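fyi for ur records
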Amino acid sequence: MSRMGDVLAGFHAAWEFESDSVLIRYERGIRTPKLFQALGERRVPLDAIAGVTLTPGRRGTVVLRVEPRPGADPLMDAAAGQLKEGCDPYRLVLPADKETLAEYYADELRAQLTRSGVAEEFLVTAPEVPLQFKAYDGKASFDGKTVHFRWFWTGASSAKWKAGDQSFPVAELSGVEWRSPEVFEGHLRLLRRDFGDEQPAQADQDPAAVVFGLGYGPVHESLPFAAAVLEAVRKCGPVAAVPASAPRRDPADIAERIRHLGELHQAGLVTDEEFSLKKAELLAEL
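which gave:
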């Protein structure tokens, strides 16, 4: 950048522009998204940025955003497009009166970008370990070398109890599948190098997965966890692509899940629209 150390402060974050990177510092406050608070700060090398946009925001704001290159950030690779707009760590929301200043920095950034396409390695550092969080059916922990799952008797399936608590060295993993807890059937699944397509299709039956639920596996805990594991896995070898679709399920399982979805709907935890949409998705798997 032309002036090192310049800072652009917005809502929930401040960006410091350096010669070879952008240092993003997230605020800590009750209105700041919990994911931002968990991340603290992130240094984004210019080589990790594919593009820059400046667009109108809501209620008298503008939004400066940098687009990370695919494969450059383990957090965004793990999220796989599932983050809500307000939790996007690459968006800086600013008052409209800072639009001219934001446009200046956007132009300065664009002039410095020389790389594009898929990055061959992660360029943005994953959250530091050790990390842990509580899922609905167990506790997940990661020390940088091994992922541990310890099952809860109140939530784990009989298949998981039969398998017992699990430990997975990252050298035995090929990837991570994260499904947001903000949708039905959220989970974190470890993909194993020696299993291929043989892993159970249902996360609640897979000893290499923990399932989320209301209040369990929140984004600000489970996503940084998934990113840290993904970064460690990549250091051991190529990362596997997340399967695009799962095999068809047993009709009895579909019926049970629709029943459970109906209970959530009656309890007011799922809206009419969400109930109809998910029910249709489940029926389509028969």
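Confidence is low (pLDDT under 50) at residues 243-248. thats all i got for now
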